[in-house]
Amino acid sequence: MDELLAGYRRFRNGRWPSQRETLEALARDGQKPHTLAIGCCDSRVTPEMIFDCAPGDVFTVRNIANLVPPYAPDTANHGTSAALEFAVRVLRVRRIAVIGHSSCGGIAALLHEPPPEARDFVANWVRIAEPARKRAARFADDPVEAPAAPRSRACGSRSKTS
Q1: Spatial separation of the C-alpha atoms in residues 110 and 107, rounded to whole Å
Q2: Active site residue 34
Q3: Which of 50, 89, 113, 162 is most buried by a 10 A CB count?
Q4: Catalytic residue from among 34, 42, 78, 158
Q5: Can you tell me the mean pLDDT for 137-149?
């Protein structure tokens, strides 16, 4: 807990003064992100840092292996689906970025097995990607190279205040 409190103090003494106006405007006026980022909850992969985004630019949902479950409106809890619905229907984001990364433990659990300590929820969760795993396995010996998609900068500079 001490390291979190120390980090908060650094934020209040360092970033807060320079970003105060932006953060207060976001609190007052609400968020208007242009992108929904669906990322892995791996602590090494932070979408806002990767895309160099300012607060308010990206609405982020993170889960094991950055998966999106099938559409299933029922009475069960659906955290990722709820975030997707809110971002698209309420916030009206312009784009959705699903962010994968190397050395993903969730994908390793899909390809092999999750560790014994993580089988209550992880094993069932990563099965969402089983159809994709099967499709990828068909092409493993005969990779298909698709043309690269055009790239554009998703976020403004850090000094952005609007």
Answers
A1: 5
A2: no
A3: 50
A4: 42
A5: 58
Helix (DSSP H) and strand (DSSP E) numbers for the chain: 7, 3
Q: State the catalytic residue, choosing from 44, 135, 151, 153.
A: 44
If you average pLDDT over residues 120-129, what whole number do you get?
94
Q: Which two tokens stand for residue 77?
A: 């809890």
Say how many Å lie between the first and final Cα of the chain, rounded. Answer: 33
Q: Is 101 a catalytic residue?
A: yes
155 is catalytic: no
Q: Select which of 34, 78, 101, 158 is catalytic.
A: 101
104 is catalytic: yes
Euclidean distance between CA atoms 39 and 64, whole angstroms? 8
pTM of the model: 0.78
How far is the C-alpha of 65 from the C-alpha of 125, rounded, in Å? 9
- Record the tokens describing residue 54, joined without a space: 């300012």
Per-residue pLDDT tens over the stretch 18-51:
999 999 999 999 999 999 999 999 998 889 999 9
Q: pLDDT digit string (tens) for 73-111?
A: 988 889 999 999 999 999 999 999 999 999 999 999 999
Sheet bearing 58-63, strands edge to edge: 58-63, 35-40, 95-99
- Pick the catalytic residue from 53, 57, 104, 155: 104
Q: Is the pLDDT of residue 149 over 90?
A: no
Residues 59 and 35: beta-carbon distance below 8 Å = yes
